[in-house]
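explain this:

___
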Amino acid sequence: MVSKLKNNGRTLRRLYEDPVSYVEEISLIEENYLWQNVTVYLDDIRSMQQFLIIHSASFYPSGRSISAYMTAKNLATITEFAKILEKKKNLKTHLETSAKPSHIRRLMPWLAKTYTVRYCRADSETFKPHCKHQARAVQLTPENIKQLQPSASSVFVKRLETAPVYGYVNERGELVAMSGVGFLTRKSFSISYTETDPQYRGRGIAKCLTSLASEPLIKKGMVGIYAADITNKPSLGVTLGLGFQPYRDLRCFYS
C-alpha cells in the first residue's frame, strides 16, 4: 500500500545507503530551504525500499513541470506510482528510475522519450585536479551573477550562497562557460550547471571549472558525482579526465 510520507527526513537513512545514486534525492530533502515542494511516496514505511520522490521543478521555462525519482522492483508498487504520476501528466515530466523500461513504457506511455544517464564518482584517491584556464575563472556569487547573467533564476542565485559554482569570463567580460555544484548533501555533491558556449568548447574550460568547484569539497572527504547522458562523449570526457569513475547507469523518461 503506497502512502505519502509526512516527514520526508525519515527517508534519509535509506537514501544514504547509496549517496552517489541518490545524491539528488538526498539534496532535495536535506536542502528544503532551496528545493521546496518535494513529496515522498513509499510502498512500506518500515522498509522504505521502494519510493517515489516528486519535485515541482522549473526546468521548462515555458510552463510548469515536475522531476521524479523512482526506485521500485515490484510491479504492483510501480503500478501505484504510475497512478500518482498519471494525475500529473498534463505537466512536463522527467522521471529517473531503476525500474524496468518495459514497465515504464507500459504503465506510463505518456513518458515516450528516453535516454540513459551515467553516474560517475570521484574521491580523494581518484580525483585529478586540472588548473588550465584558471586565470579567467571566477567563482560566481549572488552579487556578480547579476551582472554576468541577468537572466539567472532565483533558485540558481540562492544556490550560489551555499555551493561553489565557477564561470569563465572572456576578454570582453562575458560569461561563456560555467560549472559547479548543483546538488549538495552532508556526504556527497553533484556537479551541475555545466555548459560552454559552442565557440569555446574543446579547450578544457569545463574541465577547469569543474575541478575548481570539486577540489575543496573532495579535500573535505566528500564524494563527487558527475552525471551525464551516455551519448554525451565530451561531457563524459571531462569526468574521466578529472578522475571520476563510472558508477551506475540509470534510465530517464520524459514527456
Q: What stands out?
A: Residues 122-248 form a domain with the Aminopeptidase fold (CATH 3.40.630.30). The chain has two domains: 3-111, 122-248. The radius of gyration is 19 Å. The mean pLDDT is 93.
